[in-house]
Amino acid sequence: MKKTSKKIIQSILFQHLIFWGFFIFSFFLLIFGLEGFSFRNFTFIRNLSSFITIFYIAIAVYINLLILIPYFLKRKKYISFVLFQLLNIVFIIALNLFSSLLIEKASIEQINILNEFIYEAILISLFISITTFLKLLRDWINYQDDSINFKETQRQKLEAELKLLRGQINPHFLFNTLNNLYALSLDKSDKTPDLILRLADLMRYMLYECRDSYVLIDKEIHFLKNYLELEKIRIGETANVELKVMGSTGLQQIAPLLFIPFIENAFKHGTNRQANHSFIKILFDLEKQGAIRFVIENTKEEKETFVDKKYSGIGIENVKKRLTLLYPEKHSLKITDNKNIFKVELILEP
Questions:
Q1: Per-residue pLDDT tens for 215-255?
Q2: Is 222 found in the same domain as 123?
Q3: Cα separation, 79 vs 162, whole angstroms
Q4: Is residue 103 part of a domain?
Q5: pTM of the model
């Protein structure tokens, strides 16, 4: 019942009926007051003439609302709008005067044309101005509502897409880590228990800390340090792994799991057991207020294409999409693939 009443109140037809009802009431109240509050002056001819005047005013108003505003004013054809508006007013006044002469059976000499013209021009112009203002105000309110609804729809779409992208990271990361754990278990390595503990710590972070859209950069770096220690257990002395943090982390926040695909790929391609000087160097530069500069550099085989199709589909492309959604026009991603070195530099602006 309440919803039905709300729809009726919000309907254009209802609003127009209320407007014209109020106008007719005010019009006759004004005449009643000017005539000394006497009902004797309200003859049939007088009432009929008044209703015809209101009818012609309504025609002028709807010519303005349905034709002049949408086709001229909204298209910024202001001169044409003014000219056609004047023509609209003059045309309606002429019709009303002609109708008055017919109804009241009066001659042109009996009517003060100039006074009638000025009076009706003022009256019609007043109503055209009021209805134009109300029309533009309603359009502006509708535009604001549509804009809010559009932004809400985009926000929901963004959240859904981010959840999907983050959901793609966790299984991929877990799959790689379990593979490492499986390899160590086959070798009956003494490092397996420590690996399991670190994996549990990583999974705890991913399951509970990463529920929010943003996390403290300090927690994210701690997560990455745990991952590096886990990988060091797996690869042994086959590569030199370094992580350096410049500046203070403070209370700065970041989207979770944004850097892990780059680091995973670096271990995949930068820890060659046959190479003598394999390395992975990771830098977090937080010295610029509010900005985050992440750099990872690693060795690779000369013949190897670092970004393979499998990784590109889940890793780098995933990160690019998340950056576009989370940091539009506030990030810079530069990937350099040289002969033996692969480098990624990601800058997030405040």
A1: 899 999 998 998 888 788 777 777 788 999 998 888 889 88
A2: no
A3: 50
A4: yes
A5: 0.54
